[in-house]
Fold these 2 entries.
Entry 1:
Amino acid sequence: MDLFGGTIRTLEGSLDFASAKNQAVSSNISNIDTPNYKAKDVAFKDVLNNASQTIEANRTDEKHIPFDQEVQSSYQVITKGNTSYNHNGNNVDLDKEMAELAKNQIYYNALIDRINGKFGSLQSVVRGGN
Amino acid sequence: MSIFNAINASTSGLTAGRLRMDVVSSNIANAQNTRATTNENGEYEPYRRKLVVTAPQDNSFQSFLHKAQNANSNPSGVEVTNIIEDETPFKLEYNPEHPDANEAGFIELPNVDPLKEMVDLMSATRSYEANITSLNASKSMLMKALEIGK
């Protein structure tokens, strides 16, 4: 039986997503004055859908690139290439990035609280309610 | 993916911002400098305005390889690729007493416009502050992650 269930794995994937998003936002902010830089964003990938599409293949040598690399992550980095807010081809919107930063931080903290709550309940079960 | 990637990206932005401020300071300090370099005839030339060129850090071979292997390689920071000189012509001023004046009595002054420099300085300051904010956000997220299981 799986002690931790699916909850912790889901939270784990969400934390991965949130830290990737934080990284993308940081990179966008650091490139705010870079000519022709296009803002990056991170989107949730449909994990279940993706897992069913895994290529069934054997590696004949362990140095080969594995086939199931993409399934491991729950997110996808996308580049927003269709807009331009600045005469130098840059499309980083600082106000939006700052809002995303604040949102993502709250989301991350909420996930940490939730994961701690989950561990707290398990602890309480392990101790028999004491 | 390193856990400190976000902090490294913000730091690269801070470094670039500080360099831009240094270059602006140098431009303002040399705004009246008529003897910065010598040309091929051995004559003095005024100071030329300097500009910083930046590019995203994910232009390396390593990052392209990562992208080819795995679509999720995350972008990171900014880097300064070059410091170029502004090629706009020098300002001419009529001042026959000046030792660097030509036969017609004109001296060449640097192509530095203090207004442009101040605008650049403000823009560099703002992006520096924005990078500090995102650095603090990444830091507090990492500190929060250490609380898992406590």
Entry 2:
Amino acid sequence: MKIRDRLTKTEARVAPYAFISPFFIVFAIFGLFPLIYTLWVSLHDWSLLAGNQGFVGLDNYRELAQDADFWRALTNTLGIFVLATVPQLVLATVLAQVLNSKLRAKTFWRMGVLLPNVTSVAAVGIIFGLIFARDYGVVNWGLGLVGVGPVDWQGHRWSSWLAISVMVDWRWTGYNALILLASLQAVPKELYEAARIDGASAWRQFWSVTVPMLRPTIIFVSIVATIGGIQLFTEPLLFGAGVNAISGGSTGQFQTVAMYLVQQAFTGQRFGYASTVAWVLFLLVAVFAVINVALLRRIRSVD
Amino acid sequence: MNRTQRIAAAAASALVVGVLAAGCGGSGDESSDGTITLRVNLFGQFGYKDLYRQFEKEHPGVKIVETAEGDLGKYNTKLSQQIAANASAGDVVAIEEGQTVNFLQTPDKFVNLQEHGYDAIKGDYLPYVANATTTSDGSATIGLGTDVGGLAMCYRRDLFEQAGLPTDREEVAKLWPTWEDFITTGEKFQQGIGDDKIHFVDAATNTYNSILMQGSDETYFDRDNKLVVESNPAVKNAWDIANEMIDAGLTAKIVAFSKEWDAGFKNGSFATVACPAWMTGNIKGQAGDALAGVWDITTVPGGSGNWGGSWLAVPKSSKHQKEAVELIKFLSSAEGQMGAFEAEGRLPSLPALYDTPELKDATNPYFNDAPVGQLFVAGAKNLKPVYLGAKNVPVRDAFENVLRSVENGQRSAKEGWPEAVKAAEKAAK
């Protein structure tokens, strides 16, 4: 074998790795390294500005386990997550189905559902903060028209969760609907025809053809929504704008774990403890992603 | 492997190298024609626009760009992040009063102004302004003072009249020599106005902070940075007065610096606001021209007090430290401080200015020609320095949150105090 041939052969073997390497290199720098470094910091008493104050082992984790504020933030996060994600995905699936039917000006509607997602989240936060404002908000004004007294939307747990969920749903339902629509269009028309010939109703078609065919996409969409939901930060932060916005209400009634993390790191200057929160948050996301897949596997597949 | 594949492979490896290089390289902000850009990073309005133009004229080749963050909490978070990471904080940064002790933990991240002729100008500032950004061993100074709070009380003449109270600022001042009198006046106001949408003060927290900063030379921490919330009577005193105010139904229960608070200025949700000099610029901006002459300023109960104040510093990460130091010297000089006073009502921290006619006789047309010079200077002259520990901000946040929860009826005042102490202990860790 000539040298030239041997070189070509090596190239052929190496080239694919070169092609995929940018992602892994970038991931190693911006993903893996911070992850491991955060773990290292979480084992120390680490002040943001003053730096490393010594190794403390698992003390931070022990403290976190008994930290009522952390557990409250976790409850808030999960509460808002369930309140936002479940209706969002159901709505997105239904919306995708509607967008897939015979509509006039199809593209207009399809682009339309994406519009909320293009809006800057800061603008959304400010607008929804005003809509749900206690004194001069539109929602309270509307409630007043039907004789219901004004609600202090930020003041209670349930009302603040509801307002934030509405904000999240408004932004993300259309986005998810479009992804579901894309995979919906890949469903062979014959399946629906066959179902129709067998006398299946529209609802039955949706449940027995559409949903099973969409399974991989639903799994993907829910995992993305789960990760987004558990890391929820900007919407609740902007909802409670003003002094101490990071504490999510006067009793932390809508402070999420991500907000608690930032509060500990940058207001409290406790970088080590915040890293601990970050790691626990990471583990939570991982666990929830697994639970998600396990649950959604139970959706019957057509194959 | 054919030609196309080979080119693609080469391109891929080039990409990898490019990515790695991008991670290491830095880009200066020196443009090809030799001009340098100084980035000034501020919170709120400092009123420096005209001063920048003047500095640029006197220093050819220097361009100044300002970024101003409206939300102080967000600003502080970002600044801590940037200073800790030693990157991208800007060439000049503003440090707020509550953060000075915090940044003094790492004086090495800022340019030591003592190496740039600080000793010659040190004596010009109010002593506590000069000391606030100098390390305890005196070896480093990280910031030059710009303005001080100097407390007064802003009130709405129209609402006072509606409630049957005097509107003239001298007479209003006589209504409240002490905070107890202030509450009594508030009760009269509430009865007179007879509208449950209009309250006497905006929020319990703002009044609470004003009282606390008048009370003693320490608040939550002593000078050894030990938490003293329970042993320092000033904290309990401010807390109790704020709670009396809540009990009497005087507060509009609005979160300060929120959108609703902004709207409250326009809509007349509250009749008084504790008013450090810089607040006048804020009121004017929020209430708008339609309410010119409706707002007025008078003295604050308990005489003087301080709320806020800022320092300018040059982070070590700045690439143009020499020019940046020049700039902060200019902005905090007599000329610069008078410029900021004229533009945004910020009260100078140079006592020499307090006797000049420009400041002493200054009035503010927006506030019914209130003699702002006299009002704020009187406050600033009587100023007693208050020590704020490194963890002042998280502890203050914790206290404010519990106070707000009492104000919103989520807790009783009696439950509130131990809760606040507990939250403070946690935040001080």
